[in-house]
């Protein structure tokens, strides 16, 4: 099942690491550590093989992909030996990267994206293309009446400059081109009623939001623990220090607020109440593509005994995110092949702020994910059996 992976923000750290990783896996130069879909519980015939993934994408930046990969290798994000071993493969992907489209109206920009996606799919004879947004976090979108109605949105695209934020414009274009859409960021993306209607109209799945790679991943394990042990969390405060492009982008207060809101939601929805405390995100340029999170949790036990817990998470954001990008592309492609339409709530395991998820508990999300993939594999085996 030849599958295109079209990355919005294709020259960024996460996208570059995803591309290098995917190429290295295809060439058997690296193992799949971090790729959830390679665990025995998820692996199976419904998922496209790494060898069947074809990469392309859009970006406003023009730095050559190979140069970007060399920079990440020098920073300790990527093994230098992999970058050195893949010059031809990186050059081939470079040919598939396009500048972010311009145009006088949103409709013009949508049409340009649709042309790029359609051309990419046709030239490579792909069964499908999954569009994955890994671009910079946007501020929360300003509500617009057209967001609630597909017909009104189509009319507004012709002459209303700011009717959609960039992530939603790409979601609209992806769905219009017949491509499933995944938002790995906390940006608005397909999370609008009009875009849900478009996905249903075109018979397409979509997934998001905001990849769960660090502090929130730990929260999704610890918060259910406190709830199940009937321990009262009094406060939960976190400090996140980020470098790199993501950290620089989050220095903008509006983008920072959108990210913090996504990170905090897990506590209130898991505990059933919101403890005192807040999450802060600060940009520290010297950290580069690495991030550090420090959390302090105070809680009450039996007979009101007061206790506390602290943890520190230090990781490489791109190396944590990239395998999940590959996982989500493979799972979404399989869901599309199986005829799934609308939000893929079973992929909540991967997101801080998942669409329509009944729980933030990582264990419960894992159970739903494994059941989902079992059904996908069973359906594929039945279809292949009937075809034979």
From TrEMBL:
GO terms for molecular function: inositol-3-phosphate synthase activity. It holds the Pfam family NAD_binding_5. It comes from the Bacteria. InterPro entries: Myo-inos-1-P_Synthase, Myo-inos-1-P_Synthase_GAPDH, NAD(P)-bd_dom_sf. One of its GO terms (biological process) is inositol biosynthetic process. Residues 214-318 form the Myo-inositol-1-phosphate synthase GAPDH-like domain. Belongs to the myo-inositol 1-phosphate synthase family. This is Inositol-3-phosphate synthase. It comes from Micromonospora globbae.
């Amino acid at each position: 099942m030849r599958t295109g992976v079209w990355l919005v923000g294709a020259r960024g750290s996460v996208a570059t690491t995803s591309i290098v990783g995917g190429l290295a896996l295809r060439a058997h130069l690296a193992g799949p550590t971090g790729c959830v879909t390679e665990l025995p519980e998820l692996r199976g015939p419904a998922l496209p093989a790494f060898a069947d993934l074809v990469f392309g994408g859009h970006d406003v930046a023009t730095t050559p992909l190979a140069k970007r990969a060399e920079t990440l290798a020098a920073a300790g994000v990527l093994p230098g030996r992999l970058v050195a071993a893949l010059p031809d493969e990186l050059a081939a992907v470079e040919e598939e990267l396009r500048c972010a489209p311009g145009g006088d109206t949103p409709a013009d920009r949508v049409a340009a994206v649709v042309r790029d996606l359609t051309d990419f799919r046709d030239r490579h004879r792909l069964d499908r293309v999954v569009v994955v947004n890994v671009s910079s976090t946007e501020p929360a979108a300003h509500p617009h009446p057209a967001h609630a109605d597909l017909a009104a949105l189509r009319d507004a695209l012709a002459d209303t400059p700011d009717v959609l934020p960039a992530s939603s414009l790409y979601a609209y274009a992806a769905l219009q081109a017949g491509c499933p859409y995944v938002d790995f960021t906390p940006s608005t993306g397909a999370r609008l009623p009009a875009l849900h209607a478009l996905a249903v109209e075109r018979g397409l799945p979509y997934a998001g939001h905001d990849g769960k790679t660090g502090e929130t991943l730990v929260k999704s394990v610890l918060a259910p623990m406190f709830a199940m042990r009937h321990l009262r969390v009094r406060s939960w405060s976190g400090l996140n220090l980020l470098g790199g492009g993501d950290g620089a982008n989050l220095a903008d207060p509006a983008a920072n607020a959108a990210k913090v809101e996504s990170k905090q939601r897990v506590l209130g929805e898991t505990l059933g109440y919101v403890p005192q405390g807040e999450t802060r995100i600060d940009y520290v340029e010297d950290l580069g593509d690495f991030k550090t999170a420090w959390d302090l949790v105070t809680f009450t036990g039996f007979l009101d005994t007061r206790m506390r817990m602290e943890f520190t998470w230090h990781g490489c954001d791109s190396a944590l995110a990239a395998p999940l990008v590959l996982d989500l592309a493979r799972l979404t492609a399989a869901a599309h092949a199986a005829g799934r339409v609308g939000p893929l709530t079973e992929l909540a395991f991967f997101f801080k702020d998942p669409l329509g998820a009944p729980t933030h508990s990582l264990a419960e999300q894992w159970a739903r994910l494994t059941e989902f993939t079992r059904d996908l594999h069973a359906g594929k085996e039945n279809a292949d059996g009937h075809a034979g």
